[in-house]
Design brief:
Oligomer: single chain
Structural class: alpha+beta
Radius of gyration: 14 Å
Number of strands: 6
Strand content: 25-35%
Number of helices: 3
Helix content: 25-40%
Shape: globular
Order of helices and strands: EEEEHEHHE
Distance between the termini: 18 Å
């Protein structure tokens, strides 16, 4: 019986995101839906990972997320952030097999 390798996820943006800092809030303009999304300014380093058009691995995002020293910087908390961003169409995800 062969073991299957774990699926690796790569996250990316379809178009560059435009963002602004206003005090402790990060306001992100999403060109996909012309919407503004407000989030904590502490997430800017994580959002900045998407500057590359090549995509970002889940492992690289977790490393960045843990470096933010947020009260809850667990994998589950990162998953919540990524799932929220996916739902807002800020980012996309593809699985590599």
């Amino acid at each position: 019986m062969s073991e299957s390798l774990p699926v690796q996820r790569v996250y990316h943006v379809m178009e560059p995101l435009d963002w602004r800092l206003f005090g402790d809030e990060l306001v992100v303009f999403n060109p996909m839906d012309n919407g503004l999304h407000i989030m904590p300014a502490g997430l800017l380093p994580l959002l900045s990972c998407f500057a590359s058009s090549n995509g970002v691995s889940a492992a690289a995002l977790l490393e960045t997320y843990r470096s933010l020293h947020l009260p809850d910087n667990s994998t589950a908390s990162l998953d919540e952030v990524l799932n929220r961003w996916l739902a807002l169409n800020l980012i996309s995800c593809r699985a590599l097999h």
